[in-house]
Amino acid sequence: MLHILNSCNDPCYNLALEEYFLKHSPIPDDLVILWQNCPTVVIGRNQNAAVEINSPFITEQNIQVVRRLSGGGAVYHDFGNLNFTFITALAAVGHNNFSYFTLPIIDALAELGVKAEFTGRNDLTIEEQKFSGNAQYTHRDRLLHHGTLLFDTNMAVLAQSLAGSDAKHSKPAVPSVRSRVTTIRQHLPPAVTLAKFKTVLLKSIFATAGEPYRRYELSTFDRQAIETLADKRYRSPTWTYGTVPLYNHSSKQIFTGGTVQVLLNVENEIITQCKICGDFFATGDVDELTATLNGAPFTREAVATIIKIWLTAHPIHDVSPDELLSCFFPAS
Q1: Which of 21, 93, 137, 261 has the fewest CB atoms within 10 Å, i.e. the most exposed one?
Q2: What pLDDT does residue 151 have?
Q3: How many domains does the chain have?
Q4: Are strands 2-4 and 215-216 parallel, antiparallel or unpaired?
Q5: Same structural domain for residues 128 and 271?
Q6: CA gap 268, 123 in Å, rounded
Q7: How many CA atoms lie within 13 A of 88 on its CB side?
Q8: How far apart are CA 217 and CA 6, in angstroms?
Q9: Is 211 left (phi over 0), alpha (psi -120 to 50) or beta?
């Protein structure tokens, strides 16, 4: 395992760095990256940005918005938050094995006297309050796992940034968020700084891997390739905000694997436009599924066949073919 040194706080660059080493790594080793962003909202690969973020507040506070490759929900980053990334062989871990990557975090906190647990589908908690969310993305035979660690994040800004467009999300929602989310800082002695926590965490990561500490410094070629990718994808408004089709059918449901919303435009019983949004974890590119659905007959049999074939090759974590089908044909 190698620790990639990265002190950049630009979210577009940092997401491009992850993608570069996942898809084009110049070294075959397992990798770990600890990194921080300036104030930023990072939305999941399949989410509809317009309904996940509080745009007026984000604009007023000069908070950046970026979209990552992995699924899951929107998260807020600031300088009180530490992000971690693992890149490894998919065969060594398998799909959706979130708990595997959280063990060194739990051990590091235990060394500092804090008991943390992996709960739900992708969270770490202290005293039943969340302080970390995790997500994954696969490319061929490689797996990227990343997550947030709310060390000393501004919780009021976090709550307002992720308030979305629903009327129920406003300033009164802040106490509710605070009751469900915590920071690591609240559970540690004052002497334990973020820098100290980072040191303990790195030690735990390499101890869990059973390897001595080694690091990798970015080359000039690496940096140039990362900047090119950041410009091409992560700084593109089209990538970040996407497009929402005109639709005359809409259904949103919540399953064990997350929220799924289907937007459809159907004309003469043919699907002309389709978008599948949500905070679910897919092992493939959902845009490929929607491209296959476009032009298909809007019948239960036709849609079920397409969904079954695609999900067999690209499962969505804890969302079955029948559940996804129910978003296209909800019970009346």
Answers
A1: 93
A2: 98
A3: 2
A4: parallel
A5: no
A6: 44
A7: 18
A8: 8
A9: beta
- Cβ-Cβ contacts under 8 Å for 163 (sequence gap 6 or more): 53, 54, 57, 169, 170, 173
Distance separating alpha carbons of residues 276 and 288, to the nearest angstrom = 11
Are 229 and 257 part of one and the same domain?
no
Paired with 297 in beta bridges are 270
Q: What is the tens place of the pLDDT at every residue in 22-47? A: 999 999 999 999 999 999 999 999 99
pLDDT at 27: 95
**Per-state percent for the chain, helix, strand, coil, to nearest 5:** 40, 25, 35
Amino acid identity, position 122: N
Looking at the structure, tell me whether residues 59 and 111 fall in a common domain. Answer: yes
Question: Can you list the residues of the chain whose pLDDT is less than 50?
Answer: 165-179
Q: Do 46 and 117 form a contact (C-beta atoms < 8 A)?
A: no
- Domain co-membership, 37 together with 88: yes
- Which residues, listed in sequence order, are joined to residue 203 by a DSSP beta bridge? none
Beta partners for 89?
142
Q: Does residue 187 contact residue 126 with C-beta atoms inside 8 Å?
A: yes
Query: At residue 328, what is the residue type?
Result: F
CATH number at residue 229: 3.30.930.10
Query: What number of residues does the chain have?
Result: 332
Verify that 283 and 150 share a domain, yes or no.
Answer: no
pLDDT value of position 183: 98
**pLDDT recorded at residue 173:** 44
Q: Which domain holds residue 237?
A: 2-241
pLDDT tens, 66-111?
999 999 999 999 999 999 999 999 999 988 899 999 999 999 999 9
Tokens at residue 194, please? 């973020």
